[in-house]
Structures are given as C-alpha cells and as structure tokens.
C-alpha cells in the first residue's frame, strides 16, 4: 500500500522540479532521510501515536538542511496528511524514476551459487545491448536450483530451473513414445 501512495507523492515532487540536477539533489536528501528511518528508535518515534504531528515534523526537519524550502514544505505536507513514514518509499520510487529517465535499469540475478564478475559482465553487456539501455546487475543468492534474471522496471523475467527442465524433458520423451 505504501508503494502506491508513494508513487503519487513522487510524481508531484517530480513535477515541481526544474531540471535534472535539482532532481538529483532532492534524491540525495531523501536517501539521507531514509537512512534516518533505518534507526529503529527514530522509526518508532515517528510511528508513535504519543507524539503529536508538530513534534514529528520538527524531528524530521531537524535532520534536514533548512535552506531547501521546497523539501521542507514537502515534508510539512507529508506530515499534515500523516504520511511521514512514506519517506523511504518516496526515495526508492524517486530513484527508479530518475534511472528510467536516464534509461538506466537494475537487474536482479538470483542463483544458488555466486557467479564470477566476468560472467556477470557478459550477461550485463548482452542484455543491455539487446534492450538498448544501460543495465547494472545485482546478484542475490537463494536455495533454488536454477537461475533467474529479472528487470522489474521493464517487466522482463528470464528463468531456468533444473526441475522444470527435467519435467519438460520427461514430458517430451513420454509424448514421443
């Protein structure tokens, strides 16, 4: 649910920006604020019903550089509607949109074993060339026997699993008999 609402606030924030340099600066501010939210004590304070909105707003604004009046007003707007907890989600969404404007995407590679950097570079170059975009790959390890590559922002997913391959091979042999 946070993601859907964060997209609307991100869109409004992007409309208020004049150029890409200002957008990058805003992204950095939101990334810094997101780091503050990772502290459990701060998060608990902002989620607490015992603090009023003014106290929560002053807590967030104390972390910010007060010279950026637009961001301060944006934080006040978020606080007024009770949506301060959206700040990390807005940071993620803003980063995705900036990368999409630059035609840069992040692919997630999930496999059982870690692949060497040469193989990752080949996969990255091949897929980036085929899609016509800049691509970076983040690798995650999982217990699945197989490999899966997905670029969420482009809606692309490629997967290969040993179990699926064996099942398809058995079905093909059975059909041939």
From TrEMBL:
Chief localisation class: membrane
Classification via SUPFAM superfamilies: N-terminal domain of the delta subunit of the F1F0-ATP synthase (SSF47928)
Protein topology in the membrane: Peripheral membrane protein
One Gene Ontology term, aspect cellular component: plasma membrane
Keywords assigned: ATP synthesis, Cell membrane, CF(1), Hydrogen ion transport, Ion transport, Membrane, Transport
Cellular compartments annotated: Cell membrane; Membrane
Gene Ontology molecular-function annotations: proton-transporting ATP synthase activity, rotational mechanism
Family: Belongs to the ATPase delta chain family.
Role noted for this protein: F(1)F(0) ATP synthase produces ATP from ADP in the presence of a proton or sodium gradient. F-type ATPases consist of two structural domains, F(1) containing the extramembraneous catalytic core and F(0) containing the membrane proton channel, linked together by a central stalk and a peripheral stalk. During catalysis, ATP synthesis in the catalytic domain of F(1) is coupled via a rotary mechanism of the central stalk subunits to proton translocation. This protein is part of the stalk that links CF(0) to CF(1). It either transmits conformational changes from CF(0) to CF(1) or is implicated in proton conduction.
Protein name: ATP synthase subunit delta
Organism (species): uncultured Helicobacter sp
Lineage, highest ranks first: Bacteria, Pseudomonadati, Campylobacterota, Epsilonproteobacteria, Campylobacterales
Gene: atpH
